[in-house]
């Protein structure tokens, strides 16, 4: 079986009982999206309502990755949860901004700032085009 050309590494930490910090390393594209989605679905299944997606080590993301982020966003909103993107690389940030995803899904520069936003709730002030205030 050939190795994936762009392997994906996904680490999950639980800073709180209902919060999953998911650190992604590698290309988030059509070849790796299913693996990423499985990690998110597993955390959702275990009762996590808030997802902090650290994309600081993702050099490239295509529409497959964006679709998964938007799907988990929709799922978490059903249970008053949230999704936050943390430290996206410039290439990923550009895609999030160009497609408008960063308007819907907050972007934070640190785990601490994302956790503050979780505490403030979904209608917290300070978002403007997905950028930190």
UniProtKB/TrEMBL annotation:
Domain (STAS): residue spans on this chain: 17-118
Region (Disordered): 114-133
CDD domains: STAS_anti-anti-sigma_factors
Source domain of life: Bacteria
InterPro entries: Anti-sigma_ant, STAS_dom, STAS_dom_sf
A Pfam family of this chain: STAS
Protein family: Belongs to the anti-sigma-factor antagonist family.
Descriptive protein name: Anti-sigma factor antagonist
């Amino acid at each position: 079986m050939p190795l994936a050309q762009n392997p994906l590494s996904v680490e999950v930490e639980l800073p709180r009982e209902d919060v999953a910090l998911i650190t992604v390393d590698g290309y988030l594209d059509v070849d790796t999206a299913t693996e990423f989605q499985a990690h998110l679905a597993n955390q959702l299944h275990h009762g996590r309502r808030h997802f902090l997606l650290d994309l600081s080590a993702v050099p490239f993301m295509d529409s497959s990755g964006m679709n998964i982020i938007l799907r988990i966003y929709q799922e978490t909103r059903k249970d008053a949860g949230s999704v936050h993107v943390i430290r996206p690389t410039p290439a990923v940030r550009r895609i999030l901004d160009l497609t408008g995803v960063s308007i819907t899904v907050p972007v934070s520069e640190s785990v601490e700032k994302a956790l503050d936003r979780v505490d403030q709730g979904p209608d917290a002030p300070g978002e403007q085009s997905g950028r930190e205030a």
